[in-house]
User: What shape does this take?
Amino acid sequence: MNAANAAGYVSFVPEMDGVVRWVPTLMQHDEYMFPPLSLQVAREAVQSPLAVNIYEFGVEKMALGEIPIPVKENGDILINYYGPALTFDHISATDVLTGKVGQEELSGKIVLVGATAAGIHDIHTSPFGPLFPGVEIHANIMESILQNDYLMRPEWLSILDLLMIAVSGLFLGLVSQKYKAYGAATFLAFGMLGYLAFDFYLFTQKGLWVNTVYPIFTQLFVYSGLILYHFGFEQREKRFIKGAFSQYLAPTVVNQLVDNPDFLKLGGERREITAFFSDVAGFSSISEKLEPEKLVKLLNDYLTKMTDIILKYEGTVDKFEGDAIIAFFGAPLIFKDHALRSCLVSVEMQECLEIMRTDWRAQGEPELFMRIGVNTGPAVVGNMGSTTRLDYTMMGDSVNLAARLEGVNKQYKTYTMISESTYEQAKDGIEAREVDLIRVVGKREPVRIYELLGKKGEIDATMKQTLPFFIEGYELYKKREWNKSAEFFEKVLAINSEDGPSLTYFERCITFQVHPPSDDWDGVFSMGSK
Assistant: This one.
């Protein structure tokens, strides 16, 4: 120490990732302050004093003669690397000692003597990569000082970093509100490339080290977050569609809506469908006898079971109106057998309700009986209402007829009535009997109606026994042979006193015997009410 012109430290303090980017310009040992080897050698080379102003909060400024040295408050200097390892000439000490490298090669040069072998642990990691000799780090610092060529990171650059992080994140967020994923990705790509170009310009032309990683990753994270948000929002929208419609539509229909949400727009289309209307007989009187809580439970149990059957056959539940169920088949998904499906639903509903009545009787609860009206024909189906409130529903004369047929059951004391158009399309899969030719309220043309008895080949023994008598009596009725017709209906009632159509026709025959219809009677019975 006493023999040397000056003393400087040679050690470095790597950052958290192990890379040497900064070098302290001052280190304290006991009562002495030492600069690094690079500054001491540079001072000896230019024969200029090294000046440092230290104030209460740190290093104010540092200069080598007239050459200012930019340092942080803690005295660190940012290393301006001129390239990877071996950018500066490396000369083997052996070559100097043997004379292979002589005075001519060394004259006028600053020579740093240091070890570059990996085994002596003076190998560090630089931004250019690992295996960077420590002695060459000092060479880079000296070159930067002597050339007055620095990399700088002023304190205000931290504010710029934060500003770039905030602005880029907000900008991308606003862009994503207007553009979809691909559009936002385009803005992201241009934003990242633009920022990298700006960063490269400041680094190479102005010597300013602007933080690259944080703003770039901010844009990536914001974009990724927005994509995840939009994905989650779309999933939430799909969950909403499923949640909102799964109770009213079959799963296949709901999946179609999920895949194509634009389907849920205002408007309708003309299509042949089968409309279904059901109502609970005498529900008003039942509701008067029950507590509201019990009534709600009873109704919910009933509607749940009935709705499940509709969805089983991929029907669409239009709406519930109290105890009434309004549904249709053939829309939005098209089924060629929509008439048969509606009939099978009606049969299974009545069978299910019969089982439920057994349970209600055992629990002392009132029993429910359901009337059903079914008609097949053209209708307008689609989302109807306002732009803020939509209902996927059906409209048309054929829909009104189905509603009328549900009420017609009262006249014939039946529970499931279908129109001729439904019967013609579904007759290969059902059992039904023609009941009458009627003219409903609001329609001038007569409609032939059928009572739905069951699935093909599945009518009960009593109906099998009485059906031939009913058919014969009905044919005689149309021929105005009241006495003979009444005899056949009486045979039916002797076997099944609760056969509603037979009872209806028996009463008509008795009436017509006394007050026969006019000579121009066409056999059509006009309904007096809905």
Q: What stands out?
A: The first strand starts at residue 22 and ends at 24. The two ends are 118 Å apart (CA to CA).
